[in-house]
Amino acid sequence: MYVERTRNPPRPHLKGGLPVAPVPRAVIDAARRLTDEDEIQAMMAEAVQRRFCTTDMLTHELDQAGRAGTALPRKALTPLLAGARSVAEADAWRLWQRSGLPPGHWNVPIFDANGNYIATPDFWCDEIAFAWEIDSYRHHANLEDHRATVARNARYVAAGIVVLQTLPSRLRTEPDEVERELQAAFRTAQARPRPDVEHAA
Questions:
Q1: Which strands sit side by side in the sheet containing 105-106, from one edge to the other?
Q2: Where in the chain is the domain with CATH 3.40.960.10?
Q3: Burial label, 171 (beta-carbon count in 10 A; 0-12, 13-18, 19+)
Q4: pLDDT lower than 50: segments of the chain
Q5: Residue 11 has what pLDDT?
Q6: What number of other Cβ atoms are within 10 A of residue 195's Cβ?
Q7: Per DSSP, what are the bridge partners of residue 117?
Q8: Alpha-carbon distance 102 to 108, whole Å?
Q9: 10 by DSSP, 3-state: which?
Q10: Looking at the domain 87-199, which fold is it?
Q11: pTM for this prediction
Q12: What angle do CA 25, 106, 94 make, to 5 degrees?
């Protein structure tokens, strides 16, 4: 247990009869004690993905916290503010940023011309209807997950969407090669007529 004085005590919530700090405050307080950016990012991403809080709530708590211990949490939060939902997606966000390719959207649902759902790609470049999926081995460890991915890819093909699949580990071990693959896939998508698909607002 770590005890520290604060000039900004949170308004507690009761959980099992015990007063506890709200999730955004607890996440930021914990993040300020950690020294590993991946751990900080994973903790923040899980809190947001499981809808315990929003990135705006985390930003507010960081702003209230002052400077001490907030440099890493602020750095870790930046990709999440853009829409990334995991450490791997944060790595992908950084790689896309350095690629010089046009900006896009993270984790937005895509629909065909008839309003039928296609997929929610990790990254979507609407300008040319290009999807980037960060697909891990673990996500395909069982038959159902593998079947879902095959079905997703079939919907991409049927809709005319160019999609690139990348293993999360390669974002760190082979970033230059992944960037070349991104550039090549982007050019392929750019060269064909854009299919009639759209993302949710």
A1: 105-106, 123-125, 130-134, 162-166
A2: 87-199
A3: buried
A4: 1
A5: 72
A6: 18
A7: 111
A8: 16
A9: coil
A10: Endonuclease; Chain A (3.40.960)
A11: 0.82
A12: 80
Residue 10 tokens, joined: 């949170």
- Find residue 133's DSSP bridge partners: 165
Amino acid 155: pLDDT: 97
- Sequence-distant (≥ 6) Cβ neighbours of residue 161 within 8 angstroms: 110, 118, 129, 130, 131, 195, 197
Amino acid identity, position 12: P
Q: How far is CA 14 from CA 18, 44, 71, 125, 190, in A?
A: 5, 22, 30, 43, 54
**Residue 118 in tokens:** 């296609």
Which run of H or E residues covers position 153?
helix 143-159
Alpha-carbon span 11 to 167, nearest angstrom: 42
Compute the chain's Rg from CA coordinates: 20
Task: Classify the phi-psi angles of 2: left when phi > 0, otherwise alpha if psi is within -120 to 50, otherwise beta.
Answer: beta
* Residue where the block lists tokens 């999730």: 23
**Pair 6, 21: CB distance under 8 Å:** no
Token pair listed for 27: 């996440």
Residue 155 CA to residue 150 CA, distance in Å, equals: 9
